[in-house]
């Protein structure tokens, strides 16, 4: 029998200040928890760009589990018999937490582009507010992959007094020019869609074509060249298409499928805001107090609190979006702060998506790390 979970909403009816200096008049936070809270056994899980609060187990009436169900549950890497696991939808998202598609209390209409700019630090601050409401003052660990790894690093540094350790998987201290470029092409695809209408599409048809192309671009970076070649090669699905520019190769149909599936569950403006937050993430300037947002750059946590704490950085050999070299940069940075940080590059052919699919070796490292804390 499948274990059931439920997404809950925490409503904060007071202004919430952002790093830019802007304020949200109120805030909703969508979250799920798994396991039993015993005061000292909480772990915060951070999701990637297109993730949500539903990290594990099943929702009633659905046959698809949460996005990291292979890693969260009884006896799994994040063992719910031992730990109380928390996962929330990030600020700016579209799965229950306040974002551009949420109603602006001043107008009753979706924020659209009137939604203020957000940062990875803002996402961490929102999660801290959730933990306070849940009565969680100490974390065994904060963990996440891809953008979730960035959130984990930011939370660990900003709230160092409440975090014993972090696990950062397939991520980076900051984006390279190439990584920014891929995100920018995706954003341009959305904004070039006439239906985007400067972000005012909620009463009409959303910019499905532009968002679909953005997802296709992103998905190419999630797979390794070897996996793509082995899975699709030059195989044709339809050799007799009436238009030579209609998809005929298997890989073209696969990307079409990914794009269509994505637009059914994700908001185009959320994609713009979240990718912008990812591109502007720079942990080094963030914790040194030299950030370049409209608000004052400032360090939140006490660097001395990080000493003798622990970190685990996991990378994958075929991940060319966040290659192992960027993982090693995280290790050097954290060790310079006297955070005892371990590193591994797991052999995998699944590219960036390995953190979602290649779970056996990853789970062994995580179990060992958590046991050592």
Spatial separation of the terminal alpha carbons: 33 Å
Number of helices: 11
Which CATH first-tier class of the largest domain would you pick? Alpha Beta
* Main β sheet profile: 8 strands, mixed
User: How big is the Rg?
Assistant: 20 Å
Description:
With 373 residues, the protein is an alpha/beta fold. The protein has two domains: 8-174 and 282-372, 3-Layer(aba) Sandwich (Rossmann fold), CATH 3.40.50.1820; 179-272, Rna Polymerase Sigma Factor, Chain: A (Orthogonal Bundle), CATH 1.10.1740. It is built from eleven helices and twelve strands. The protein has an eight-stranded mixed beta sheet, with helices on both faces. Strands 2-3 form a two-stranded antiparallel sheet. A two-stranded parallel ribbon has the order 6-7. α9 links the parallel β11 and β12 (340-346). The longest helix has 16 residues, at 177-192. It starts with 7 loop residues before the first strand and ends with a helix.
């Amino acid at each position: 029998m499948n274990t059931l979970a439920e997404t809950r909403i925490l409503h904060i009816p007071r202004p919430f200040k952002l790093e830019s200096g802007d304020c949200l008049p109120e805030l909703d936070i969508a979250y799920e928890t798994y396991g039993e809270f015993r005061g000292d056994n909480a772990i915060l899980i951070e999701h990637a760009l297109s993730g949500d609060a539903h990290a594990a187990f099943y929702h009633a009436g659905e046959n698809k589990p949460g996005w990291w169900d292979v890693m969260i549950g009884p006896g799994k890497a994040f063992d719910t018999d031992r730990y109380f696991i928390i996962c929330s939808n990030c600020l700016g998202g579209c799965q229950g937490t306040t974002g551009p598609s949420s109603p602006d209390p001043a107008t009753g209409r979706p924020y659209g582009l009137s939604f203020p700019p957000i940062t990875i630090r803002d996402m961490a601050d929102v999660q801290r507010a959730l933990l306070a409401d849940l009565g969680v003052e100490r974390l065994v660990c904060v963990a996440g992959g891809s953008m979730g790894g960035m959130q984990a690093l930011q939370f660990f540094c900003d709230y160092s007094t409440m975090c014993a350790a972090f696990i950062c998987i397939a991520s980076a201290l900051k984006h390279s020019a190439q990584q920014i470029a891929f995100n920018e092409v995706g954003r341009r695809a959305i904004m070039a869609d006439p239906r985007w209408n400067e972000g005012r599409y909620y009463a009409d048809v959303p910019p499905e074509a532009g968002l679909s192309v953005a997802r296709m671009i992103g998905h190419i970076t999630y797979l390794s060249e070897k996996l793509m070649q082995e899975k699709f090669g030059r195989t044709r699905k339809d050799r007799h298409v009436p238009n030579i520019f209609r998809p005929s190769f298997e890989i073209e149909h696969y990307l079409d499928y990914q794009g269509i599936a994505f637009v059914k569950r994700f908001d185009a403006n959320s994609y713009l805001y979240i990718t912008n937050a990812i591109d502007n993430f720079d942990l080094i300037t963030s914790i040194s107090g030299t950030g370049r947002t409209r608000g004052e750059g400032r360090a939140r946590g006490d660097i001395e609190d990080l000493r003798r704490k622990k970190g685990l950085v996991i990378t994958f050999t075929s991940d060319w979006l966040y290659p192992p070299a960027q993982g090693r940069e995280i290790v050097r940075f954290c060790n310079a702060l006297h955070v005892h940080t371990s590193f591994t590059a797991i052999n995998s052919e699944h590219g960036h998506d390995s953190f979602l699919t290649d779970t056996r070796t990853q789970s062994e490292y995580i179990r060992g790390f958590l046991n050592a804390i």
